[in-house]
Here is the input.
Amino acid sequence: MGEARLIERLEVSLNTPAGQCTSSIEVPTSFVPVAALVQPMRRLGEQALALEERKTLAAGKTISCRMGCAACCRMLVPISAPEALALKEAIGKLPPQRRQALSQQVAETRSRLEQAGLLARLTEIAETDRQLTDEEFDAINRDYYALRVPCPFLDNEVCSIYEDRPAACRELLVTTPPELCQDITANPVHPIPVTVRMSTVLALLWADVTGGPARLIPLPLAPEWADRHAAEGNGTWPGTQLLEKALDKVWQILNDAFHDRAQRPSGQLPPKPA
Here is the structure.
C-alpha cells in the first residue's frame, strides 16, 4: 500500500454578490499536481452558483435546463489546462471498451472540425504562448457554433462524462424557454449570472505556477493536449500552497464582480459567456 496522504481541511467563506457561502475544502499537504485542485474548486464554484440559482428562483424566474436538453452541447466549450489533465486522468480510469468508444468519438469530431477548416485554428488556441483577446475567441466561437457539431462526450443527448464535465458546462443555466437555445445567435437567451468562473480561476492558477498564459483549451482537443503536455501536468506543488493561490484568484474575481454589478443597471444580465 502507498503512503497515506496527510489532508488539511479548510473552511472557506466567499462573500458573493448573491450572498455568502461557506465550504469545507480538503487538500493534501503533500506535493500534488495542479489537476488535484480541479474537483474542490468546481465544488466551490457550484456552491457559489447555487446562491445565484436561489436568487433567480426567488425573483419568480424558472431555470429551464433539464437532462436531455443538450442544445448548449453544440457550443465551443473552453476548459483550463488543469481540467484537461484531470479529464484525461478520468478517461484513463474507464473500462477499456468505454475508453475506446470515447476515443473514437473524439477522433470523429476532430475529423469533422478539420474538414470544416477549424481544427488548425482550435489547435492554435490550445497551444498559443500568448494571451488571446476576447475578440479572437468570439470569432472562432461563432464559426464553431455554426457547425452545430455535438460534443464528443455527448451520448444520446446525455453527457457521458457528467461527473467530470468541465466547469463551463456546470455554470451555464438559462431562464428562457429551452427551445430558444436551439439558436442562441438568433434568440434572446438569458443565462443566470455566474459570479466566479472556475475555468478562469484554474486557468489563472496554471499561468501562475507554470509562467505561461492563462490557457483555455477547446474541449474536443483536451485529451490530445493533455497527452502532449503530460510532463507539465506531472509537475507538483504543495497542495495548501496551490489552494491559497487559487483562492487568491477567486477573491480577485469577486472584487471585480462587486464593482461590475455596482455599475450595471438593476436587472441587467452580464454579456453571454464566449
Notes: The radius of gyration is 19 Å. The longest strand covers residues 7-16.
